[in-house]
Amino acid sequence: MPGPKPLPLELSDRERGVLRGWLRKRTAGQALVLRARIVLACAEGRPNAQVAQELGISRETVRKWRSRFAADRLEGLVDAPRSGAPRRITDEQVESLVALTLDQAPPWGDSHWSTRSMAQAAGMSQSAVSRIWRAFGLKPHTVQTWKLSTDPQFVTKVRDVVGSSLSPPENALVLAVDEKSQIQALDRTQPVLPLAPTTAARMTHDCVRHGTTSLFAALDIASGSVIAQHYRRHRHQEFLRFLKTIDDAVPKDLDLHLVLDDYATHKTEAVKKWLLRHPRFHLHFTPTSVSWLNLVERWFAELTCRKLRRSAHRSVVELERDIRRWINERNKNPKPSVWTRTADEILETLAAYCTRTTDSGH
Fold first, then answer.
1. CB atoms within 10 A of CB 10
2. What pTM was computed for the model?
3. What is the DSSP letter of 190?
């Protein structure tokens, strides 16, 4: 049996403006922002189940705040006074602390606020500062790095690389190609202590270095299998040898579309001349500083996480043999790489991020 028909909501221009203002206000509590989103969605005529699914909450929560707004309008969305000891920190103090966190640097030359320095500046306890920061999702002690490409052909290259992966040419193979250079053969100075109940595996933090190798890899995007070769150096000569390895490994009736970065060794005169003699090779260069567009980078991350980070090797030969064994096992059950976003969606996301960064005032 279908549930009861939800209460219809109609908003006045003032109410809609206040609700949207809560969404934009940086100092608004997360609970109040969620309630505003619920009411705005319900006012568009959406059923409770659809609103709950879009916001990732339960239908009972949607039903509760729809009913409260219908009964008491905007006042129904504000928390009622609670029993117990009266608040010692006012809303004005909370707003002042949040603004201080966002807009001012510590006065003692520190790079960022700590709970101790903020407590001293705001005249509050450390625990109060910590609670307010958690409530507003503020983490002054953490920082995320990012970089936007300055490549003048950025848009064209993004469309070319993503397009070749989403809609590969007929009778062709698309390979994501790159090199992981300077892989060190490291051995621990003491034996590794294995995993035991209640005790993690343990190894010494210091290592003995036994040389390095470079791994050239070509990831077949459609199947997930990898063509790989080790070389002791990382020059255009090794890149040419790897191109010949790819040429020998792939059937001659297939064209080869290689996605790779604009590293200097990929563009030497010797490479260009070799490509002219092998017209089935077509190169697609990622924009400068946009290595995340090359799917083989994700494969290199898997290699580091699953094999290299916790391995020990007494020689370069042993390291190369171990990596080769790992690759062969992965190639027995490869998993294709699938793009989930088009080039237009990627560009729209970057444009929105640039707009937010420009409008942030920092």
1. 7
2. 0.65
3. S
